[in-house]
UniProtKB/TrEMBL annotation:
SUPFAM superfamilies: FAH. Gene3D superfamilies: Fumarylacetoacetase-like, C-terminal domain. It comes from the Bacteria. It comes from Goekera deserti. This is Fumarylacetoacetate hydrolase family protein. Residues 86-317 form the Fumarylacetoacetase-like C-terminal domain. Keywords: Hydrolase, Metal-binding. Belongs to the FAH family.
Length: 323
């Protein structure tokens, strides 16, 4: 936390049919268009504008936080960022990957489940030590609000949840080392990386394998937010608790300590191939507790609620697509 400042978050809020960028302190709002001159940016103020000058703007925002006065209850909360690029990490939580591997492995005669699990765990530790993250692209058009209803496309009956920590990029990053990577992260938010499980693997094109485009990019399939929390208020991103409930029952409950590749490693890895831009999202993977391994999938009327330490809580109701 910045010395002597009131903690705050950035948000995109809607009222009277218009979206605006705001600072939120507690339950009070300061619309940033009203202080654009103080911030040294043109109105209407966007989150991307602020992130592009994050090191200069952050102390100014901290000084403005005590001016927040409008009640948050008068606004609708939108996704806090409108990313140009979304980078998603697969198979990045140790326990999750071990559970998935065990679900598909055959236990040979003379070996116990415990022995096979220990071998799989050792393989994951080796991957973390010597391997590279698995990263693929998502569509910005899939980003939805943290409290929006989500329509479940009728072309699948196996929609699943994956609550994740997402890093929000501030300064552009290209070929940065792991040691410098976090200096390019402005803050963090929550993303639920929804998946249509039966669309991810192409049975008609087994040589190609996975189809992340079809499996993950339906409208609203990346509920994001509610807030963009500055990194200085979050502390260690590898010591946060991720919790998701499905109809009130806890399904995911894991620490970010369980990541195979931490946030810095992921940001660095992505930057080796392309330039990360202000407002881009780097999703860090899902912990164990997805529905698919237990045959639980989203149905009409289901409610998911997800939270991460210090980042708030998002909540969606899921609706079957109407013909």
């Amino acid at each position: 936390m910045l010395p002597g400042t009131t903690s705050f978050v950035l948000a995109r809020l809607a009222a009277d049919g218009r979206a605006r960028t705001a600072l939120v302190a507690g339950e009070l709002v300061l619309e940033l268009d009203d202080v654009a001159q103080t911030l040294g940016v043109p109105a209407p103020v966007t989150v991307q504008q602020l992130l592009a000058e994050w090191d200069r703007v952050l102390p100014l925002l901290a000084g403005l936080a005590p001016q927040a006065a409008a009640p948050l209850s008068g606004y609708t909360v939108l996704a806090p960022v409108e990313p140009r690029q979304v980078f998603q990490s697969g198979a990045n939580y140790r326990t999750h990957v071990i559970d998935l591997a065990m679900a598909h492995v055959e236990i040979a005669e003379g070996r116990t489940v415990e022995e096979v699990r220990a071998q799989t765990a050792a393989e994951m530790d080796e991957r973390a030590a010597t391997g590279d993250p698995y990263v693929f692209l998502g569509l910005p058009s899939a980003v939805g609000g943290p409290f929006d209803d989500v329509v479940l496309p009728s072309w699948s009956q196996k929609h699943d949840w994956e609550l994740e920590l997402a890093a929000v990029i501030g300064a552009p990053a290209f070929r940065v080392g792991r040691e410098q990577a976090l200096s390019h992260v402005a803050g963090y938010t929550i993303v639920n990386d929804l998946s249509s499980r039966d669309r991810i693997f192409r049975r008609d094109m087994k040589e190609i394998g996975t189809d992340w485009f079809r499996g993950k990019n339906a409208p609203g399939f990346l509920p994001t937010g509610p807030w963009l929390v500055p990194a200085s208020f979050v502390g260690d991103p590898q010591d946060l608790r991720i919790t998701l409930t499905h109809n009130g029952v806890v399904q995911q409950d894991e620490s970010t300590k369980d990541m195979l590749f931490d946030v810095a490693a992921l940001v660095s890895a992505v930057s080796q191939t392309t330039t990360l831009l202000p407002g881009d999202l780097v999703l860090t993977g899902s912990p164990a507790g997805n529905g698919a391994p237990r045959g639980i999938f989203l149905r009409d009327g289901d409610v998911l609620e997800g939270s991460i330490t210090g980042l708030g809580t998002q909540r969606q109701t899921y609706r079957a697509e109407q013909s």
